[in-house]
Amino acid sequence: MKYDLAIVGIGSHGSAALHRAAQEGLKVIGIDRFDPPHTRGSHHGDTRITREAQFEGDHLVKIVQAGNKWRESFEDKNDPLFVKCGCLNIGVKNSDTVRDIAAAASGVAQRCNIEIETLDAATLAKRFPVFQVPDNFDVVFEPNAGYLRPEACIAKNIEMARQYGAKVLVNTEVTDIAEGRITLADGRVIEAEQIIISAGAYIKKFVPATFAQKIKPVRMYVGWFKIKENYEAHKNAPVFCLDYNDYGIYGFPAIDGPDGGMKVGVEIDVFNKPALDLATHTYETTKEEMDEIFAGVLEYLPALSYDYVRSAACIYTVVTDDEFIIDKHPLMKGVWICSACSGHGFKLSFGIGMMLVDLVKTGKSALYTDKFKFSRFN
Length: 378
Ligand SMILES: Cc1cc2nc3c(=O)[nH]c(=O)nc-3n(C[C@H](O)[C@H](O)[C@H](O)COP(=O)(O)OP(=O)(O)OC[C@H]3O[C@@H](n4cnc5c(N)ncnc54)[C@H](O)[C@@H]3O)c2cc1C
Description:
Elements (H helix, E strand, L loop, with lengths): L1 E7 L3 H12 L4 E4 L16 E3 L7 H17 L7 E3 L2 E6 L3 H17 L4 E4 H7 L9 E6 L3 E3 L1 H14 L3 E3 L4 E5 L2 E4 L4 E9 L11 H4 L2 E13 L3 H5 L3 E6 L2 E5 L10 E6 L19 H14 L3 E16 L6 E3 L6 E4 L10 H14 L16
Parallel strand pairs: 1-2, 1-12, 2-9, 5-14, 12-19
Antiparallel strand pairs: 3-8, 4-8, 5-7, 6-7, 10-11, 11-12, 13-16, 13-17, 14-15, 15-16, 18-19
This protein binds flavin-adenine dinucleotide.
Flavin-adenine dinucleotide binds next to helix 1, strand 3, strand 13 and strand 17.
């Protein structure tokens, strides 16, 4: 049997596209080498920051907003995929980051009707006492932002897709893709009019070499640090992104009870990090990696202790210009590529799923922009 659409990789973006395609009545199959959600890609770790004020560009705002509306239409209110707790961007006054975020966020906020507030260090300490930042810091707060639960989002997408009649093949690796044909590791062939490749960190394998060199998987890590005191304040904290020296730490409210710790990660110049060897990497973290995060924690979150309850490593897949690649395959008709969207793709996954299905069905989408095309590299 020939499918209308086959999706290679049903993690964050692929599962959203699978769900949307099935809802829109396409005969669709999703294939994954593991059994999503899982811990061997880019989506594990319980939480992903989501915000509408995308200082990376207005073109992303409408994708997030469209995705949010769609999510709300099927979300179970008793088991929400999104938790609203607000998002803080914190950094040195007049630093590029804070200035850019404040300017861009207020511009975006006005244009797209997003509520944001600017706070000073003293107000921050009063409202959110877990943070202790110097007086020369500025803060931009987006009260309607929060976090998504990535594993629950993916599970929901796959469950809904199945309900709408999608076929799902898990623990099945795709080894080759040609126009209208997918070859599986066991030699089986799947035929489909169109194919979306959303293989996350493993996508390079399916992209022509000239473009594959623009894509780099890098290793990232997070720790859940023990809370020494004032658990309630940590539980009620917003998600946050905090400039620390030349890099940033980010984190989430303490959602796992007084002994579950507070999740904090670090984002160090991903463009200069070495490319990850996907054949040999492991998901165990090292003491040096936790030290890197804790340096920032120690400075600004004084009630957290170095004893971490757990830790996790995960993969960012960065594109050299920090933009996403979502486009037709340059050499194969009917094949679409959706890159893993660097370190900030999860919040866009529902909107990207909608956009991909529009593209497959009609060749265009109101959410699409030339910024995502391969031609920008010419
Ligand atoms: C530590 C960390 C923190 C992050 N924080 C945030 C955040 O706060 N907010 C945010 O918006 N984003 C965040 N991100 C980024 C976000 O999680 C990613 O952009 C997103 O998960 C990428 O989705 P994906 O679908 O491309 O990849 P994945 O979700 O990994 O899915 C790819 C799927 O493809 C499958 N696959 C690969 N190769 C094959 C093959 N040959 N055959 C079949 N299947 C295959 C894999 O098994 C996998 O299931 C973070 C990422 C990391 C690592």
